[in-house]
Amino acid sequence: MNALVESLSDHIENWGMVWFGLIFLGSIFNEFSLFNALNISLFDINLFPYILGLIFGLVAKYRGRWI
Amino acid sequence: MRFDNSNIPAKFSFQKEKEVARKFAQRFQWEMMLIGIGQALVWLSTWFLVINNYISLFVGFILASICACLAYLPSHEAQHGNYSRGNKKKRWLDTLIGHVSLITLMYPYRIMQATHMKHHANTNNPEKDFDYGIVSCKNPWEVFLYTLQGPDKAYKEYYDVHKGDKNFVNRFSRGLLVSWVQKFVQLALVVIFPLETLFLWFLPRKIGTFYTALNFSWFPHQGLEVGRYKDSKFYMFKYMPRYLTHSMQLHFVHHLHPNIGHHDEPRAIEELKPFLIARGLPGAEEIPDRVTYNPLVKI
Fold it and tell me: Could A20 and B187 be called an inter-chain contact, meaning their C-beta atoms sit closer than 8 Å?
């Protein structure tokens, strides 16, 4: 159990910004119709806003900060 | 607690100062309890009201931001045990208000408690004070940028310094679990209610965190040294009444006597003023004789 919690903790510490970008920013971007102009659809979900969120998250991870 | 007593007249001894302070550390903090639980309920209500279109998202955002600015102080009183006041049977009140009040800011109570106790023990110490990252900012803009990044950097920097303290590690670990749950809930909510999560939680808590960091950590301690009577100051703003800054102009007395209830601090300072002047507390000479109901505006 401890090993699981520890590995989860390490994962969140290392990849938290990427997950935040993908899910949080992706969902926010998805709400703005501006991004619907570029439709990369899979199962009726426009992937473009989520890819954009993921890119923001990856950039933040490698910079070590958001702004 | 190391400070020089050699030049202090007997009538301003630490023992006498403590006796005065103790008088104001007895009353039940019902106002803080009301603010803590009240703002959390208002904040939760904004979700219901916005989602069901009773109020606009903008009005909800304003309400949520005000709640976020009010969220920290009631939990802060709980961190010091100022609701239970040493009564084991009332300790649940500290825990309840400590946790509930911080929901708006999405901070785990146990981590706040653990790091805040270290802040009190090591105020302004660059190597040990969790708040030093804020205190070392040169201006409010830097505080804003610092708080935007979240507290993880400070946690990483200072956790190792204090990991020898079992009580600290225990509180911190318990808080970490709550922090994960909070982050997971926010990520789940943003998928279902994206804009509501952004405007009712994410942005308000950033505003609330900045407001809290600026008024609780930066203004009272910025530019000061380490040590009792030296690490916090009295100050006044031009045109800004203290009611808009949670009366943090009086934060110094909290660092001297953390068990004085927040709403009793003005009266306590009126009585403690001669002690503070004798000890050379920064800004003590400027403390007005009457602090209660005084907005402390410098015109």
Answer: yes
